[in-house]
Amino acid sequence: xxxxxxxxxxxxxxxxxxxxxxxxxxxxxxxxxxxxxxxxxxxxxxxxxxxxxxxxxxxxxxxxxxxxxxxxxxxxxxxxxxxxxxxxxxxxxxxxxxxxxxxxxxxxxxxxxxxx
Length: 116
Description:
Order of helices and strands: EHEEEEHEEE
Distance between the termini: 33 Å
Number of domains: 2
Number of strands: 8
CATH architecture of the largest domain: Roll
Strand content: 25-35%
CATH topology of the largest domain: 2,3-Dihydroxybiphenyl 1,2-Dioxygenase, domain 1
Number of helices: 2
């Protein structure tokens, strides 16, 4: 092993707002907050998801730019979870399949709600 996973950093225009969205979506808590950089996770000593302010942010153009990283979020009921993420500021994107629906977070990053 060369190293241990420390975190995933997501570029965005509003780190605080996007962190709040993912706190509610993933059930995580804020573990670090600086000007332009917010980290959420299970605990401060565990890997987390960070949101970093980027000036001139341009969201991915789904579905044309599909090689970007995205979250798959497992849910019990895709319809119920879909309504909840829309209330948080997500928007539905084209695509999906038998077991997943595609959404964009408030900054435009795609993520999937997955149920089996």
